[in-house]
Structures are given as C-alpha cells and as structure tokens.
Design a protein that fits this description.
The complex is a heterodimer. By secondary structure, chain A is mainly beta. Chain A has a single domain, classed as Immunoglobulin-like (Sandwich). Chain A has no helices and 11 strands. In chain A, strands 2, 4, 5, 9, 10 and 11 form a 6-stranded mixed beta sheet that branches. In chain A, strands 1-3-8-7-6 form a 5-stranded antiparallel beta sheet, with no helix packed on it. The radius of gyration of chain A is 14 Å and the shape is globular. By secondary structure, chain B is an all-beta fold. In chain B, the strands form 2 sheets. In chain B, strands 2, 4, 5, 6, 9, 10 and 11 form a 7-stranded mixed beta sheet that branches. A 4-stranded antiparallel beta sheet of chain B has the order 1-3-8-7, with no helix packed on it. In chain B, strand 7 (64-68) and strand 8 form a beta hairpin. Chain B is globular, with a radius of gyration of 13 Å. The N and C termini of chain B lie far apart (37 Å). The mean pLDDT of chain B is 94. The A-B interface holds A 30-31, 33, 35, 40-45, 48, 86, 88, 90-92, 96-104 and B 33, 35, 42-45, 48, 56, 58, 88, 90, 92, 98-106, 108-109, 111.
C-alpha cells in the first residue's frame, strides 16, 4: 500500500515562531488533506489540497503532487496551535481505495 | 450546521462484552467512515459506507462490524472485546460518494476502555 511519512515527528516552538511541516507519500494520490488534532482529541480539517497552494489565516499549505509531497506552514504560532498535525492521502490504487494517514507531527507551542 | 455527532463520548467495558458506537453525519453527507486511533498504531481505517452499502473495509478482524441506515446515520459494533480494542474510535463524514475524494469531517470520537 501507499506509504505516508511526516516530518519532523516532534516540534517545540516559542509563541510567535514560524514552522514548516512536511508530508511525503510514495505514490500518486487523488487528494491530500491536513488535520489538526487538539489535546482533547478533536480532529479538525485544515485543508483539502490535492495540488497547489491554499491559505487560511496564519496557516497555508502547498501540495506538489508530481513530486509527492505537501507542506503545511504555520506562521506566528500561538499556544492554541499545539497538538498533532496529520496529513492523509486519498489513494485509489487498484481496488483498494481509502484514506491513509501519516503518523503525525506533535507540535508544542510554549508561551 | 451541526457537525458530526458521536455517542457515547466515553465507554468502559470488560473483556468479552460487546459494544455499539453511534455516529450521525453532517446533514447532507451520505458517506461515513470509521477509524481507530491508538498510540501504537496511529489512525487506522476501519470501514466506509455510502447509501447503506459498505464500500471498503480495513484490516480488522470480523469482530468489528458496522452498518449505515437510510438516514445516513451509522453504527459500529465490536463483539467479544479484547484489551487491545481500547482506543479512540472516530467517525467522519464527507459529501462525495468516495471518502477519499472530498474533505473529511470528524466527530469528537468515542473513547473505549476495555478492562
């Protein structure tokens, strides 16, 4: 099946710093989504981004499908940005279509 | 518009028992999928439904089953519970018939503890 790797696995920032999270995938995908899981376990969809660049406030994402990676940018980080960031790829190879998640990046933003 | 609603939020069961979890999707969403999240295995796909039909199933034993009703609400059932079934179970809904082809929206999850 498709492999999804996220880096770095852990990241500690001071409030106000910027960061870049990366998601690499091993095969062509139909789409890619970024999620944020807060400390209470709630998963929020940040971006649905099969290709190109999207921005939402302090967050932006870029997917380069031909090179099989996506980047999530967080600018001017806040303590509420803490949590785990997951990327998930939608893959329809053969008869096995499903969403496959990476292991996530644990972000801690200190005040 | 209300989000994805999962009930109950917390469950404590003993080994050998069975459990049923419920999920109501966002209004208008007809695709529902289920995921198991554990510290060791991460987020793993369980199954996916569209229009009351199971479209796909992950690599879980037959003790894990699910169904979808005509109003798109879904339930999953785990029989003969094992300690390793302790996890956060997440339900998600999407607009497209193919879960992988449209934005996914998650509920708050059901945290199951098996003792």
């Amino acid at each position: 099946g498709i492999q999804v790797e996220q880096s770095p696995p852990d990241l500690i920032l001071q409030e106000g710093a910027n960061s870049t999270l990366r998601c690499n995938f091993s095969d062509s995908v139909n789409n890619l989504q970024w999620f944020h899981q807060n400390p209470w376990g709630q998963l929020i969809n940040l971006f649905y981004i099969p290709s190109g660049t999207k921005q939402n406030g302090r967050l932006s994402a870029t997917t380069v499908a031909t090179e099989r990676y996506s980047l999530l940018y967080i600018s001017s980080s806040q303590t509420t940005d803490s949590g785990v960031y997951f990327c998930a790829v939608g893959y329809s190879g053969g008869s096995n279509y499903k969403l496959t998640f990476g292991k996530g990046t644990l972000l801690t933003v200190n005040p | 518009k209300a989000g994805v609603t999962q009930t109950p939020r917390y469950l404590i069961k003993t080994r050998g028992q069975q459990v049923t979890l419920s999920c109501s999707p966002i209004s208008g969403h007809r695709s529902v999928s289920w995921y198991q999240q554990t510290p060791g295995q991460g987020l793993q796909f369980l199954f996916e439904y569209f229009s009351e039909t199971q479209r796909n199933k992950g690599n879980f034993p037959g003790r894990f089953s699910g169904r979808q009703f005509s109003n798109s609400r879904s339930e999953m059932n785990v029989s003969t519970l094992e300690l390793g079934d302790s996890a956060l179970y997440l339900c998600a809904s999407s607009l497209d018939r193919w879960t992988y082809n449209s934005p996914l929206h998650f509920g708050n999850g059901t945290r199951l503890t098996v003792t």
